[in-house]
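tool_call: predict_structure(chain=1)
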Amino acid sequence: MLQKVLLVEDSTSLAILYKQYVKDEPYDFFHVATGGEAIEFMKKNPPQLVILDLKLPDMSGQDVLAWMKENQLPTAVIVATAHGTINIAVNLLQSGADDFIEKPIQSDRLKTSIRNHLKRAKLEGLVEDLQNTFNRKKYQGFIGSSLPMQAVYKIIDAVAPTTASVFIYGESGTGKEVCAEAIHYQSQRHDKPFVAINCGAIPRDLMESEIFGHVKGAFTGATTDRKGAAMLANGGTLFLDELCEMELEMQKKLLRFLQTGRFTPLGGSKELSTNLRIICATNRDPLTEVNEGRFREDLYYRVHVVPIQMPPLRDRGTDIIDIAVFFLKKYAKEDKKKFTALKRDVELILCNYSWPGNVRQLQNIIRNVVVLHNETHVTVEHLPPPLNQSQTIPAIKPQLTSTPIQQPVEQQPQFTVEKENNSQATEETSPTAYSTTNTNSIRPMADIEREVIQNAIEHCDGNVLNAAVLLELSPSTLYRKKQAWEAYEESDS
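tool_result:
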């Protein structure tokens, strides 16, 4: 799609001249004669660039610019000004315009300015797209910005518009059904049904009826015809969870259905067809199931076109905190409780727990806390077993060679300075960046920052995530600084 340039100029002759200048340029060039027309144009389809005359018949160019900035249009503005109004143009640059051209406008000057600003707009758009792609904190039903989840989001973005079969695998509670729903709602089938079947929760003798339906009299209790999931999901998506628990005979029938798109309801004689997308999931290792004869190899290769592995919660870093806070506020609102946040030691306990039940377990624990308590912050005492058996994280005890930077006690943990004789007696101190009585104690801030961060990481046994929580910093910030120091030391050596 070509970029758009809008000329706002009340002189028809000048507009014709400018159009002639750019007739061979690779963008769409539009013209309106009044400020009102310009605003209406931009409301419907904001251009990448506006060339704005200051003197318009219905309002001033300043008014149009003010409207654009008020509505935060992602549009560059070049002010066209006659000689004698340069000061006004400079003022407009300070008010948000990007450039100005003095009339009469020459062909080369106009084309060069347009090219430069469109190129910049394109680059800014690419940067914004990359930021939106790689820094997403929420995505469909997911919460989390960790690198493992960013990788999942990218695969979903790529596979959703296609018709390829998707096989999702991961531990129980990692969000496999949420992933399937995300694929469905990102696809062109988003306005059609999403039907989920848990193959491990349906008795074997009812599985065929659940998927393909049955006709009246097909078995005892079948008093009417019944549509199965395959027909209910027609046009949309059929999600088969825990597929590896399906019996082999049913796997054979499912394979034929996937290959032909046709099936016969249980007890029926008429073959039906449906158009749907299949997404499968399992918490087992599908290849192990194939090798041990519990899962058909031909079915495996039929559904295992695009695999997506859901990361366990313990590998998702501070996503644990974001998810916990989300559920905390959700349940507090539902139950009219006061909870709004987690205490710092609770955050550390949550981040260090192994989470065998993954997100589902975390959700249940937060639900338990909200039901049984009613305070503003979740404390260790609120946590159910086994989390409440964890010890409160002790204060960091770095060996500082001089006093570090002052920070409020509530924003940074107290530091304990060990005495040189390594005796058990310690002295609590509020760090300070310098001494007012001895200026020789002043040290570069970068040295103090590095020392505090390194001591925090050492205190946490090399766990950067825990150190980041204690220091109230982003883990990515600590990783970046740590890598920069290591790179500097390597180059220096």
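agent: The longest helix spans residues 107-134. Proceeding to next step.
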